[in-house]
Amino acid sequence: MNALDYFNARLEATISPMDYLRLAQVNPEKYFLIDVRNGPEHVRILTIKDANIIPQQELQERLHEIPKEKEIVVYCWDVWCNTAAKVAAFLLERGYKVKELTGGIAAWKEMNFPVSDVAQDANLSDNCGC
Asked: Ranges for the Rhodanese domain (predicted)?
């Protein structure tokens, strides 16, 4: 693969936070954004606003929640995390149109783009009730 092929493939497989925000504002019905991060809930409290939360470890049993007619955008923690890439490959193998959000939630937060506090939005408590 030469450099041009590499960069064209990369552009086809990814979307920047700026591009996603702009495109989703213009045509929100076109996209289905998924937070695929694994890990304890308390470290996944902040999520991109309006993202669907389907951790990679739950993907197989929740596949029916992902619409085939939309463009799927997946994200994980940051540029070092490959969870979103694994999910993208899994979904592509099943006929979905998928892009990875570059930089994950770390890049999104760095740009001060809108986030949601899952605990606050769901009125969750840190109290386990024990």
From this structure: 27-117
